[in-house]
Amino acid sequence: QVQIVESGGGLVQAGGSLRLSCAASGGALSTYGYGMGWFRQFPGKEREFVATISWSGGTTYYAYSVKGRFTISRDSGKNTVYLQMNSLKPEDTAVYYCGVASGRNADILKSNYNYWGQGTQVTVSS
Length: 126
Prior knowledge:
mainly beta, 7-stranded mixed beta sheet, 4-stranded antiparallel beta sheet
């Protein structure tokens, strides 16, 4: 059974930093490696892409709104991914979800993700 455990959300002032962590395990994830990503969801809105990383870690993509402020990384050889968020803005306030893609590549499409974490709240105060 696949388990995805997220941590690291919280309340921070504008300009501050947070680091999100996500560990995926179980089922096929115990044997194979996958691309992973972070998405976020604002109240009443669709889940949107934030960042993604390939299994090898060699390819990353970012949403324009976070590029230069957020960094996605992963532990080598593991389905564990991190999101370092710097220079946070109030408009970054959302629930952040970790996802496991269907293949080994980095993937910006939400529809290509098979598994999702429970979400972690990030709140940035002004």
